[in-house]
Amino acid sequence: MAVADSSTVTAPERAALRVVELRKSFVSGRRTLEVLRGVSLVLEGGEALAVTGPSGSGKSTLLHLVGTLDRPSSGRIELDGRAPHDLPEPELAAFRNRNVGFVFQDHHLLPQYTVLENVLLPAFAPGAEAGLEVEERARELLARVGLADRMDHRPAELSGGESQRVAVARALVQRPRLLLCDEPTGNLDPSTARSVADLLFELHAAHRNILIVVTHSLELAARFGRRCELRDGLCAES
């Protein structure tokens, strides 16, 4: 595997997602821990990338930076030519809600809301698309993930696999350009994990978004056309 460097991303200029020399450091007392030391990636619309690596290698940190949940120490991220980290915080939050969908290892469903209401949560953010069209989209997504008959149920009435399917539908309800998944099958048994992975690939193909999945599962990573291993703060792509 060759370590990706900035020369990898100088072209194409109009790549959907460009990550250039991304660095992230954390200060703890007198120590500075450099987690990412110059990660560069390019992904076009419709591409899918698996990110692997040992615990503590910076996989989740990379995902949080690309998803604008955190700011890099240096480097640049562009999505469709826009640099979201250049935006002030209110505009950045709106950009994230419109353009980025997240699926985490823990589904993070709100127990007081129904399945349908949980899927619609991104539409409740200021400036988000709302109304009958987005509700219809939410219903269609729940039908697509096999939960058409569970829309009025609460999360406590669902299995782990069903809850993760709701999380996938929620991540896609705003039709994001970028879908980021952090260990989406990590808490599931092997059979359910394969089912959720099948669903992710199916919906990714249908929506033609950019899919980045962080995973410890070599079985899941092997299903991706592109794979990147984080080690010593650098990204080596196979």
Structure explained in plain terms:
The protein is α/β, with parallel strands linked by helices and 238 residues long. It has one domain (2-237): Rossmann fold. The chain is built from 7 helices and 10 strands. Strands 1-10-9-4-8-7-6 form a 7-stranded mixed β-sheet. A hairpin with a 2-residue loop joins strand 2 (17-28) and strand 3 (31-43). Helix 5 runs parallel beside helix 6 (190-207). The longest helix is centred in the last third of the chain and has 18 residues, at 190-207. The chain is globular, with a radius of gyration of 18 Å.
List keywords for this structure.
238 residues, alpha/beta, Rossmann fold, 7-stranded mixed beta sheet, 3-stranded antiparallel beta sheet, 7 helices, 31% helix, globular, disordered N terminus
| Biggest beta-sheet profile | 7 strands, mixed
* Coarse structural class: alpha/beta
Can you tell me the number of structural domains? 1
Total helical segments: 7
Could you list the spans in which at least 5 consecutive residues all have pLDDT below 50? 1-14
Query: Helical content, roughly?
Result: 25-40%
Using the CA coordinates, give the radius of gyration: 18 Å
Report the CATH C-level class: Alpha Beta
For CATH, the homologous superfamily is named as: P-loop containing nucleotide triphosphate hydrolases
Outline the fold blueprint.
Elements: E1 2-3, E2 17-28, E3 31-43, E4 48-52, H1 59-66, E5 74-79, H2 89-99, E6 100-103, H3 115-120, H4 132-144, H5 160-172, E7 178-182, H6 190-207, E8 210-214, H7 218-221, E9 226-231, E10 234-237
Helix pairs in contact: 5-6
